[in-house]
Amino acid sequence: MPTVLRIGAYRFFFYSGDRHEPRHVHVERDGKVAKFWLEPIRIQESGRLKTSEINEIHKIIQEHQQNLINAWDEFFNN
Q1: CA distances in angstroms from 74 to 9, 52, 55, 69, 70, listed in the order given
Q2: How many CA atoms does the CB half-sphere of 69 hold within 13 Å?
Q3: Per the confidence metrics, is the pTM higher than 0.90?
Q4: How far apart are CA 73 and CA 69, in angstroms?
Q5: H-run or E-run covering 46
Q6: CA–CA separation, 25 vs 2, rounded Å?
Q7: Between the CA of residue 73 and those of 4, 12, 29, 65, what are the distances in Å?
Q8: Is 65 helix (H, G, I), strand (E, B) or coil?
Q9: What is the chain's alpha carbon radius of gyration, rounded to the nearest angstrom?
Q10: Which residue has the higher pLDDT, 11 or 19?
Q11: What letters, b where the CB count within 10 A reaches 16 and e where it falls short, cover 14-46?
Q12: Quick check: helix, strand or coil at residue 77?
């Protein structure tokens, strides 16, 4: 599970078994894990995070979308 980004309390990562799914990222805070598709950015699973946190994470992903896509491609194409 490579961590590809840390911002504040949030850890952004992939599961190695996710290779056959569309590009996405998991986001963890305090044991809660949400899942976001990267193209287009949208939430797949909220992981019991609050709506305000989901909105904050969405903004972070928008700001770092290309870096997250590049990290996905690098991890899964090696």
Answers
A1: 25, 31, 27, 9, 6
A2: 11
A3: yes
A4: 6
A5: none
A6: 11
A7: 12, 15, 24, 12
A8: helix
A9: 11
A10: 11
A11: beeebeeeebbbbbbeeeebbbbebeebebeeb
A12: helix
5 confidence band (pLDDT: 50, 70, 90): very high
**pLDDT (average), residues 34-44:** 98
**Tokens, residue 44:** 């797949």
Average pLDDT over residues 14-42: 96
Dihedral pair phi/psi, residue 9, rounded to 5° = -85, 0
Q: For the chain, give the percent of residues with pLDDT over 90.
A: 92
The residue extents of the domains of the chain are: 3-77
Q: Please report the DSSP string for 12-31 in residue order.
A: EE--GGGTTSPSEEEEEETT
The yes-or-no verdict on residue 78 having pLDDT over 80 is no
